[in-house]
Amino acid sequence: MINFVAGKKDKTTQARTGQLKTKHYDVPTPNFMPVATQATVKTQSPADLKKIGVQIIICNTYHLMLRPSSAVIGQLGGLHRFMNWDRAILTDSGGFQAYSLAELRKVNDEGIEFSSHLDGSRHFLTPENAVQIQEELKPDAAMCLDIFSAYPTEFLEARIAVERTVHWARRSLAVKKKYRYSASSRGRPTRTSAVNAPGVSWNWTFPAMPSAA
User: Fold this and answer.
1) How far apart are CA 176 and CA 174, in angstroms?
2) CA distance 188 to 31
3) b/e map of 25-63 (b: 16 or more CB within 10 Å)?
4) Would you kindly state where each structural domain of the chain is located, as residue ranges?
5) Contact present, 140 and 90 (Cβ < 8 Å)
6) Considering only the top CATH level, what class is 18-94+126-186?
7) Residue range 108-118, pLDDT digits in tens
8) Contact 189, 136 (CB under 8 A)
9) Rounded CA gap, 39 and 78, in Å?
10) Nearest to 106 by CA among 134, 53, 147
11) pLDDT by residue (tens digit) across 136-145?
């Protein structure tokens, strides 16, 4: 579990400081997160990162899904043990790769289909298996699968991106709740138990958005 405690707030801009309390480390905010896309910050060891005061790093679901795989990392105890890093870790869901690898992906309401940039193999990332993969990675904070548009963009494209992200966030939360229930009642869930659990409905409705002026 993570908990956010608000600190000082600027009355003019509403900007605020705070503290993100995680299992491994209490992270003051705002904070700079070095990118450890493939479970390593390039050219920097964990000792180097600590020496310069790094408190939280970000890893990537899509890249770790491909290599070495979340299953391997999970069997080795999760990202903290895999990386020898005892401070906070946040995992991105893979949604950014829908933008950065646009020529290798197709997006629909169910999720994102990728052609691997490594070997061309096909992978379909959904809100459900993005949660599942991150459960195996065991970060302190995980992101739901999201979709966003480039800048500038047309109004309709931005609207579709927002509605899909809301839809996917609700699906992600439903699966996360299944994991919590399974973990508390029967121990750690199996790789597919949460995704296939009964009683999860994906029929969502959204409030009407204003039309473009």
Assistant:
1) 6
2) 32
3) eebeeeeebeebeebbbeeeebeebeeeebbbbbbbbbb
4) 18-94+126-186
5) yes
6) alpha beta
7) 999 999 999 99
8) no
9) 11
10) 147
11) 999 999 999 9
